[in-house]
Every structure is written in structure tokens, then in C-alpha cells.
Amino acid sequence: MRMFLFFLLFMFLAVIVLLLTVLLGARGAWYFAWMIGTVMLVLISALGGALLDAQEAHAAADGHQQP
Fold first, then answer.
1. d(Cα 3, Cα 12) in Å, to the nearest integer?
2. Which of 19, 22, 63, 64 has the fewest CB atoms within 10 Å, i.e. the most exposed one?
3. In angstroms, how far is the first alpha carbon of the chain from the final one?
């Protein structure tokens, strides 16, 4: 839970910084898109890993051999 709270804190700070960047500079939109893309990449990768683990656990429970 503590790690999740740190994540939320840092994401909040990142949003504040990005909003300031958008307001103060023309390149702010690029940084915003980069940050959103990076977060989405990490979340989708974590989801893929979780799904792979679930598939392996399901296959093991059914008695299938893993390669």
C-alpha cells in the first residue's frame, strides 16, 4: 500500500509539472504525450505479465505441461 501511495504522489507531482510546462512553453504538449505514453507502456506490460502468470497457473492446475 505504501508503494502505491508513493506512486500516486509522484504521479500527482508529474501532472502538476506537466501542467506548468503546458502553460509556460510550446513544448509542453510533447512532454505530456511522452509521460502518458510511458505510463501506458508500463501498465500494459505489467498487465501482460500478470496475464501470462495467470495462464501458467491455470495450465498447471489443469495438469498441462509447460514448455
1. 14
2. 63
3. 35
Report d(CA 54, CA 62) in Å as an integer. 12
Cα–Cα distances (Å) from 34 to 3, 28, 37, 44, 55, in that order, read 23, 10, 5, 15, 31
The answer to the question of residue 67 being in a domain is no
pLDDT value for 28: 67
CA distances from 62 to 24, 57, 58 (A): 58, 9, 6
Cell representation of residue 60? 498447471
Q: Does this model's pTM top 0.90? A: no
- Give Cα separations from 2 to 18, 56, 59 (angstroms): 24, 29, 33
